[in-house]
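Lecture 7 notes. Example A: sequence first, then its structure tokens.
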Amino acid sequence: MSEVQQKTSAGRRVAAGLAGLIPVVAVAVSWLLWRDQLPAELASHWSGTGRPDGFMTTRSALTIGLALAGIPAAIALVCSLIPGLRPSILRGTVGFAGMISGMGAGVWMISAGLTLHAGSAEDAVLGWWLAALIASFLFGAIPYFVAPKPQFTTTKHETRLPLGARESGAWSQTITSKFLLWLPVGLIALAAAILIPAITEGEFYGVWVSAVSLLAGILITAVIAHMQVTVDWRGLRIVSTVGRIPLKRIKLEDIAAVEVTEIRPAEWGGWGYRIMPGRSAVVMGAGPGLIVTTTSDKQFAVTVGDPDTAAGLLLALRDRKRDGGARPGAAEQTV
């Protein structure tokens, strides 16, 4: 890494740590602006999106908000100042800390803001602000993307599988994440814990919002928990085994390079289907995988058990495509 790159990386590390302080500043500034107008008690809990069913003193709510926003932010800042900390670990730390900090600030801002707007804690209806509370977790994406990108140790694959003049190979493998397979069970349990008490108490208003959100989460998780990776004359394809939903396709003519590497979830944003600026990935866990760089200089990574065979066939088929070789209908060789 050059001296300029090192300075840029160091600057981004510090910037990521400082970005994590934004929720703490938001809590502190809002308190200074609202302290003379806030009542002694704030709404602190809603069973649905209607009126609150839990309350807390303003001082306690402020203390909790500052703690939830401040402690993770302090940890992230300290980590950003450790020069030897691996970029993938730093990204994961500041991203997760940002999620907690954003949630802490969101809880305070919504409790205080709704109470102030309504005039009393009892009249602070949550309504669509539930979506804002959920969205507060997304703050973690800011320090995550500000932090320097991890540098991958990869081996550019040059070996092609030998194909006869009339052969067109095909390779396929299913990939599964045990974590993602069990996650819908947890989401169903969470839905039951949240929705059943609200329904039994007759609080139907707003329950459908939570139900739809949780159902969407369950369906999305089910779709990405078990996939099939295929390499053939169509290129690299990722298809969900649930409903045969196509999730990703890279055509042969769009492939610039293929690399074989050890993929770590922390370096690609976690488990599942991950989308980031300039790159995306299907990660089922730490292990061997492929990184395909396209002609538009974008990267796609996928964890597979036999990346060398997949890479060799992908390059052989790409070269044949460029040379105007065999097309579908020729004899196939399955590998």
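Example B, a different protein, same format:
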Amino acid sequence: MRSSLYVQFFLIILIFNISLLHAQIADVIPEKLNPSFHASRRQALREELPLNSCAVFFSNPIRNRSNDVDYPYHQDPDLYYLTGFTEEDAVFMIFKENVKIGNDTTNEVLFVQERNPHTEMWVGKRMGPYEAKKYLGIKLVLNAFQLDSIKSNLKNLQTILYYDLPEDIRNENYNKTDLFDLVNKFNKMEKPVWLSSDKQHVHATENSIYFPKDRHETLDSLMGELRQLKQPEELEILKKAINISCLAQIEVMKAVTPDMSEREIQGMHEFIHKKFGAGEEGYPSILGGGSNACVLHYTSNNKNKVGNNLVLMDVGAEYGGYTADVTRTIPANGKFSEEEKKIYALVLKAQNAGIEKCQPGQEFKAPHKAALEVISNGLLELGIIKTKEDARKYFPHGTSHYLGLDVHDKGNYGKLQPGMVITVEPGIYITENSDCDKKWWGIGVRIEDDILITEKGWENLSVLAPREVEEIEKLIKEESFFNKVLLRE
């Protein structure tokens, strides 16, 4: 009976506190991009395709977790970017010029699964061709079994662009139009002479392929050129993903204690994410306490108690298909030690130097060079390294990547331009038994923010989550509704 009362009390406190957070995010239901957005992206790609060509995009395979249980499905980001379609077992083709397919004249066609009441009873309603065309605004949508109708069109093209076809696809014998069968059919179709490159296949009738602006391109670079510049509609959704992640960071800072497990801290983050409509995380959450913070992509999160150590929290909510990527490092006991504070201050100084380089026209690596310079000099001054070159022992990764539909989003890594969103995330990781004074061992610090390049400079989209030592220590002293949760005696 007492446990029941505790749960009721928790729910009352939870509702009250979450209502306060609602003031910072107006709508908890993830938006969807308007069909006009996807249409504009298709047209932008079409303008860059070579004459008499087609680009082909397959949906992501269904990934098996174990036995007859699959992971939650996630659409191929390129296919989603161009169509807004989120279902599996599909293929999309976009043509440079209009082609005749059956009785239709079109420059785009999406092949989807047909409606099937028995299947939908298990997995939910499908769109089918009619609703996909109606709600997505794609000019021609056909059943997947009609893929053969495209044979003659592909045969007569000069160039076909597509990525490496997925090979690790499960063949569902009961479905003769699943991704396995779609890929096989496509492979058997007669196409122009085959050329290849690192990231995609290109079919062409000549050894070189002409693209607009006198350049040679791959499909990957064409999509990177588009996706690296975020449109206003994308930024609106991405900012909400980032705000949700920041709110989680704030609430966890208030709740953290040394006797918490890494997984409990992870759960608090992800609870806040889901409360505000983020269906998933954009990548596996990284919650490293103590020496685990020195493992760059630590996702086990299975330490029973974080203890009186720093906790590195690299967690990003995925909202409306777009993912945040925010990292904060905090002392579980509420107070940075002198050594922790010095390392943290150095990383923060490096990050600020990197952010200042996030200016239009700067090379993509400019933030990294600035951050590395600060860290190299700082580690020398602290006596942790003997030469500046040794800094790479403790700062082994890059400082920035694009952010969007993927946590490491597509882009061509040229000069920074307005509309790009990149991370700035320097770090210092001093593992046990490092070649330095033992007092530094086990300290891992990363600070990561999501930066929008603007016409006049930059905007920190994740500024809501505190970064300064004093701000973090002050916030940890505040009460969190999580601290009032008692689910067992």
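Note on Example B: The radius of gyration is 25 Å. Residues 224 and 411 are 4 Å apart (CA to CA).
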